[in-house]
């Protein structure tokens, strides 16, 4: 994945295959979600993120836990919930245990308890992967059982919340 402090660097979906706890996962990094900007490229990136969510087996909504949830975070959470896809909430940018109290406001998004993580340092990334596997359940998906491929986990969120770094 390409990472940069500037928003809008990731435009196309990026894929990476990983194994965790006996499960094969394909992580799908999406561009930052900014719908309805009337900018052709930005709107196309948002459409790609929406398409990725619809194709996902599980959606990981990544939020920046160092700031309160934004209206865009709320809109994304509503979209994910309406999709009917299994989902988890990643509270990113929590580099120390002391910062984990910042996740309290994210509970209001309605996606369940936030999974604290620091993409920059890798802190608690194993816990996040374990939560993903647990959310998927013990059995294989129909695609896995049919030999058609791994579980697709989509990383979605607004720009600069750390999706690509987490990838």
Structure description:
This protein is 29% helix and 21% strand. By secondary structure, it is α/β, with parallel strands linked by helices. The chain has a six-stranded mixed β-sheet, sandwiched between helices. The longest helix is centred in the first third of the chain and has 16 residues. The radius of gyration is 15 Å and the shape is globular. The mean pLDDT is 84.
Structural key phrases:
alpha/beta; 167 residues; 29% helix
Q: State the major sheet.
A: 6 strands, mixed
Based on secondary structure, the structural category is alpha/beta
Number of helices: 5
Q: What's the rounded overall pLDDT mean?
A: 84
Shape: globular
Q: Are there runs of 5+ residues with pLDDT below 50, and where? A: none
Please tally the β strands and state the result. Answer: 6
Our Rg estimate from Cα atoms comes to: 15 Å
Layout of secondary structure:
Blueprint: E1 14-20, E2 23-29, H1 40-55, E3 58-64, H2 71-83, E4 87-92, E5 115-116, H3 125-136, H4 142-145, E6 151-156, H5 163-166
Parallel strand pairs: 2-6, 3-4, 3-6, 4-5
Antiparallel strand pairs: 1-2
Give the gist of this structure:
With 167 residues, the protein is of the alpha/beta class. The protein contains five helices and six strands, in the order ββαβαββααβα.
